[in-house]
Amino acid sequence: MLTHERNKLVTETGPGTAMGNLFRRYWIPFLLSDEVGEPECAPVRVKLLSERLLAFRDSNGKLGLIDEFCAHRGVSLWFGRNEEGGIRCPYHGWKYDFSGQCTEIPSEPEASGYCKNIALKSYPCLERGGIIWTYMGPPEDQPPPPAFEWTSVPERHRFHSKRLEECNYLQALEGGIDSSHVGLLHSGELRSDPLHHGSKGSDYHLADREPKFEVRESPGGLNIGVRRNAEDEKYYWRVTPWIMPWYTIVPPYGDNPLHGHAWVPIDDENCFAWTFSYHPTRPLNELELGVMRAGGSLHVKLIPGTFRPMANKDNDYMIDRGAQKAGSAYSGVKGISMQDASLQESMGRISDRSRENLVMTDKAIVMARGRLRKAALDLEKGKRPAGLDAESQEVRSASYVLPRDVAFDQAPGEPMKVKKGVAHTSI
Ligand code: FES
Ligand SMILES: [Fe+2]
User: Fold this and answer.
1) Residue nearest to atom 4 of ligand 1 (CA)
2) Which atom, in ligand 1's list, is nearest to the CA of 94?
3) Which fold, 154-410?
4) Hey, where are the domains in the chain?
5) Which end of the chain has fewer CB atoms < 10 Å from its terminal CB, N or C?
6) What is the CA(148)–ligand 2 centre distance, in A?
7) Is 365 helix (H, G, I), strand (E, B) or coil?
8) Are 64 and 82 in contact (CB under 8 A)?
9) Taking residues 398-405, what's their average pLDDT?
């Protein structure tokens, strides 16, 4: 349970808010590279942490993320022409380069130098792993580039997608931390999804419906261990890292790819849910790519030309009551991510946490909320947040069997660490 005041603190991320200031200290994934694939391609409207911006790739391939609106009289530069060296407002022709600097005002004599004094707000961008990231915080505090494993594997090892989720980022993130719903809500997929079924892990998962949870602090967030009974007095562990501020990595099954997630606030009532699928040591195979491209596994089918899922609240997520009764889809909604999104959106745009009744299996959620809140308040006192460095980001999820007397974070061989050229630990 959170008071209204605490709920506001952890859910509001616009300019000047405590959580907004915290999130602005991280590199933020906001576009797939092919959304601005070519120099001088069409600009893209971007809303991030409640700020309205415009992204484009200029004639030299440089990425710009600038204020969406022209400094002259406020026209949206989305209508602008992306031409030689910048974006030109189609109303009176003011032109801006990738850094937001105004470079030309056709109606003013060049000698006046007036345009030199005009600059739009802009944020630096970088491209890593097929994703475009921006940093919206104070320039002097810019952290090193993102080091998550999915940003450094070869292109053929990865498949990334994003989808609109029509609710606050936090309830969506909490769904990623909350492993206790998986064996129930996603039970149909554990049996049928080609990227989940057939592993020893999914057999253990389905066989023990009373998992036990253990949570440990990690340098960049939490490690959430879930144990189930295995044979010979052993436990089967599935470990999900949560990395500040909004990343999780789903524990793997067999040799299937890993899947990272991020829930990035568009504004306080919408977020982008990212899925980063990757294999550390091999290219994704045709089966895997086929499933992912078709919106299967943890990806979703989108309305063409948009990032809104085909199944959405306007069509009740295409719920199939017959499948619900038969048990082939536990909730009747198809697909792991839409099962999650349907329930998370059903909580309302911003979940009212003053009305919830938490239980033991919500421990990781309580710890994550507490850690985010503390980091936001500590930042106001000048303390650098966790999760900014490679040590925090070069981690993996893992699944393994251990003797019952070995703690999950004492597993031999440091299975949660990225080891270049070595596959993830998974059964
Ligand atoms: S409003 Fe953009 S140039 Fe006039
Ligand atoms: Fe889920």
Assistant:
1) 92
2) 3
3) Naphthalene 1,2-dioxygenase Alpha Subunit; Chain A, domain 1 (3.90.380)
4) 27-141, 154-410
5) N
6) 21
7) helix
8) no
9) 96
pLDDT tens for residues 14-53?
A: 999 999 999 999 999 999 999 999 999 999 999 999 999 9
Does pLDDT of 390 surpass 70?
yes
CA of 80 to the centre of ligand 1 (A): 10
Within 10 Å of residue 265's Cβ, how many Cβ atoms? 28
Q: Are 91 and 75 in contact (CB under 8 A)?
A: yes
CATH number of 27-141: 2.102.10.10
Answer whether 338's CB lies under 8 Å from 329's CB. no
For the CA of 77, the closest atom of ligand 1 is 2
Pairing assessment for the beta strands 258-267 and 270-278 based on DSSP bridges? antiparallel
pLDDT tens, position by position, 277-310? 999 999 999 999 999 999 999 999 999 999 999 9
279/87 Cα distance (integer angstroms): 38
- Ligand 2 (ion): residues with CB under 5 Å are 340
pLDDT digits (tens, 9 = 90+) for 208-234: 878 899 999 999 999 999 999 998 899
Ligand 1 centroid, distance to 93 Cα (angstroms): 6
Assessment of whether the complete model's pTM goes beyond 0.90: yes
Pocket of ligand 1 (CB under 6 A): 70, 72-73, 75, 89, 91-94
**Distance from Cα 239 to the centre of ligand 2, integer Å:** 14
Ligand nearest to the CA of 335: 2
